[in-house]
């Protein structure tokens, strides 16, 4: 994609029935506040409009990327050469169904992750609030990342997801998502539109215990994480039996700065934006930390953050396998 054709934008507006912008700055849409612009930024009205917009892009050969709350995303400084989908909080109405001692909740992928917590609480459910309360982002991000904490994760509750492709909407049962630690396999190019989750109803005692656990978790986060500075959460996943933050700290890198980015002096697995950081500064620190930990321990740290779009300078070879580009899917490509 080199230039955006006005006719394409018109068709997209009609299909998406929502806002469509060009050269839309993405730094403000990510929690670490770095990166360039999206060539096209689309906010579809609802799941059907999302399918229609995907069809327009597919026919025009324009790749796309789904952005949630940007709480786990680093966009390259040269931006995203394609379309970025952002689903609104009201993209799909919540549906709640009571089933014996459980509640089945169907939530739109654009809803904030806090909706999952608050709805479960309203329905007297347990097993959600304690782990999900401190995780920023959207339902789409919670599912795509299989986000969680040692107290629980999205896979504990997920029943099925609805995905949109240029050929329509379809439901995928959780068994097909290969859910494991911070991993969920979605069909190539599919955009999550809704998630169906099951929450067990708890007793008064269980709910009170959960509220105490939430309080303790949020207090711990305040104490141990750099929550007042822009960041994208843990940048590396924890290697088996150890903690990425402990390994980076042991390598002596806490507080190390490159440009406007810094390895947090509070938590070494967080990179914070201390000024006018560029994505390139964040990447420098990711590479520095990976190499230092590899030299000291032989462990290859794997990024948890999603590196999306075009990086300038290009990503070093060691991060390239973790690079997420916008994806194009032709209408006739049926997903697995
Ligand atoms: C302060 C802080 C604390 C955090 N603590 C935790 C924690 O305890 N545990 C944890 O697991 N994470 C944590 N995170 C990371 C982050 O909050 C989670 O990964 C969250 O689920 C990301 O959601 P998001 O909507 O912001 O996703 P984004 O960053 O927007 O996207 C992440 C990935 O999900 C995909 N995605 C998002 N929406 C869709 C969609 N509709 N369709 C298809 N793909 C989609 C994106 O393409 C991308 O690959 C933390 C982050 C911060 C900033």
List the helices and strands and how they pair.
Elements: H1 6-16, E1 20-25, E2 37-42, H2 47-60, E3 64-67, E4 73-75, E5 80-86, E6 95-99, E7 102-108, H3 113-122, E8 125-126, H4 129-132, H5 139-144, E9 148-149, E10 152-153, E11 158-165, E12 168-173, E13 191-201, H6 204-224, H7 244-250, E14 257-258, E15 261-263, E16 271-273, H8 279-297, E17 306-308, E18 323-324
Parallel strand pairs: 2-5, 3-5, 4-17, 17-18
Antiparallel strand pairs: 1-2, 6-7, 7-13, 8-13, 9-10, 11-12, 11-13, 14-15, 15-16
This protein binds flavin-adenine dinucleotide (FAD).
Flavin-adenine dinucleotide (FAD) binds next to strand 3, helix 5, strand 9 and strand 13.
Describe the structure.
This protein has three domains: 6-86, Uridine Diphospho-n-acetylenolpyruvylglucosamine Reductase, domain 2, CATH 3.30.43; 95-207, Uridine Diphospho-n-acetylenolpyruvylglucosamine Reductase, domain 3, CATH 3.30.465; 244-324, UDP-N-acetylenolpyruvoylglucosamine reductase, C-terminal domain (Uridine Diphospho-n-acetylenolpyruvylglucosamine Reductase, domain 1), CATH 3.90.78. The protein has helices at 6-16, 47-60, 113-122, 129-132, 139-144, 204-224, 244-250, 279-297, and strands spanning 20-25, 37-42, 64-67, 73-75, 80-86, 95-99, 102-108, 125-126, 148-149, 152-153, 158-165, 168-173, 191-201, 257-258, 261-263, 271-273, 306-308, 323-324. With 336 residues, the protein is of the alpha+beta class. The protein is globular, with a radius of gyration of 20 Å. The longest helix has 21 residues, at 204-224. The structure holds flavin-adenine dinucleotide. Flavin-adenine dinucleotide binds at residues 31, 66-73, 87, 109, 134-138, 140-142, 144-145, 147-149, 186, 191-192, 225, 227, 231-233, 306, 324.
